[in-house]
Target: Diaminopimelate decarboxylase
Amino acid sequence: EAAFTRQADGQLAVDGLPLKTLAERYGTPLYIYSDAALTRNWQAFARHWPAPHRLCYAVKANSNLAILQRLAQLGAGFDIVSGGELARVLAAGGDAAQVVFSGVAKSVTEITQALTAGIGCFNVESLAELDRINAIAADLGCIAPVSLRINPDVDAQTHPYIATGLKANKFGIAMDDAVASFVYAASLAHVKVVGADCHIGSQILSVDPFLDAAQRMLDLVAELARRDIPLQHLDMGGGMGIQYQQEAPFALAEYLQRLQALVKEQQPHLTLMLEPGRALVGNSGVLVTQVEYLKRSADKCFALVDAGMNDLVRPALYQAWHDIVPVHASTEPQATLVDVVGPVCETGDFLGHARHLAVKAGDYLAVMNAGAYGFTMASNYNTRPRAAELLVRAGQAHVIREREELQQLWKDERLLP
Ligand code: LLP
Model:
């Protein structure tokens, strides 16, 4: 069931609220999220994921406090990659004990902050990091719960920038070094080895690479058990893909069930964890933008819109496809091929190329599936204030982030004396 639907009068609406009304009221560019969609996405996991298995939402996908608050209320733990994300989780009412801390270059400050807050687990990416965590925990007089991130070397068949499970990238510890690394971790006085984790990439649409990775991880868990290093949990990371275009949908229920079946048969005592980001928030948000001008040249038509790569960088950065649809039924009789481009001074600043659209200046367009890696990757490039964010819940629109004011952009800058 789609959250953003076309009403009988042609208006695109969420919970019965026309996006056009919201755009007129709150201005554009505007991120609009649906609480109903968020909840449905959560339930699609939770339904097939009984306790004690856990879900740690990957905060980087969308870290607005209200989104974190809703997910915490639904029962989510959190996967964070910085001290900043930890602070957000705590500010939103999340439980530190349900937090796992991923990331390749955790600083001393971040590790200290996480230990002090009492996070559930560090997902450790190298032996150097392990030594650092052990030393800080010793200073603080505590024991740090750790998992080692192992690189299972499977090809996730996704965009090279977001594939992380192959040998040749910066993430995790190579499978060949895994056993020795766990043996080393188990020898340290101020860490307790509680798990193993992996993350093979993002926007993966087939179940097979996940199950391949799971089998490799389970073989490792078995080997560790033989060496008297029993693990409590296996965290398979995130990466479950969503439909941006006409892709066959990811078989989520099948993945969840087959993963549990594998574990039940091989390591029945293990608790499973996942770190979904995109799959929870991606389709629950849109970016609404207004057409400033149409510009026709001999062989091209551009729709110049008020949202750019600073608001949504995925098309520019990954050539990612987002559907772009008119927010209200068009009065223009003819759809033409248009490039939907932003106001930023870069040729790469586009939201969509060669889209079949009937638009005129002043129209609003919705860029679909913008709930994940949308606002969180936004910048102030070209001194553009970041967009406002709304969450629609039970037919009510709530401003969950005000549009940035210009003065905020340089308030920390100083003129020379
Ligand atoms: N866990 C770890 C350790 C991760 O690195 C990531 C994402 C996730 C979980 C969540 O992955 P998800 O379920 O959302 O696929 N900016 C890119 C995506 C980068 C993903 C980075 N890591 C994009 O816009 O497509």
The mean pLDDT is 95. Residues 103-274 form a domain with the TIM Barrel fold (CATH 3.20.20.10).
